[in-house]
Amino acid sequence: IGPSHASAARLDGRWELVAGVFSRNPERTRQVARDLFIDPQRAYADHTEMAAREAERPDGIDAVTICTFNETHYEIADAFLAK
């Protein structure tokens, strides 16, 4: 479902995908980031690292889309809300 969310964000025109965890496989995450023209420094190994590092940026976090199995949504959302 992740690619569908990325496509919808581009089509909507109100969102810009600027960072992400795109796979459990770090190399795949880096490749997807390259394919989506995302800065490789913003392709993360896991949601915990992403939440911490993105929260430290001056531009911060405006929104997060969670495209994982339902049972993981709370843990991921909580990590971002804590920042």
What would you say about this model in short?
The chain has four helices and no strands. With 83 residues, it is mainly α.
Description:
It is a single chain. The chain has 83 residues and is an all-alpha fold. The chain is built from four helices and no strands. The chain starts with a helix and ends with a helix. The chain has a single domain, classed as Rossmann fold (3-Layer(aba) Sandwich). Helices cover 48% and strands 0% of the residues. The radius of gyration is 12 Å and the shape is globular.
Structural category is mainly alpha
Task: Identify the overall geometry.
Answer: globular
Element string (H = helix, E = strand): HHHH
Proper CATH architecture: 3-Layer(aba) Sandwich
Number of strands: 0
Q: Tell me the count of domains.
A: 1
Mean pLDDT: 92
In helices, the fraction of residues equals 40-55%
Radius of gyration computed on alpha carbons: 12 Å
Reported for the largest beta sheet, the result is: none
What portion of the residues fall into strands of 2 or more residues? under 5%
Low-confidence stretches: none
Assembly state (oligomeric): single chain
> How many individual helices?
4
What is the CATH C level class, in words? Alpha Beta
* CATH H-level homologous superfamily name: NAD(P)-binding Rossmann-like Domain
Q: State the distance separating the first and last CA atoms.
A: 25 Å
CATH topology: Rossmann fold
Question: How is this fold's topology laid out?
Answer:
Layout: H1 2-12, H2 26-35, H3 47-56, H4 73-81
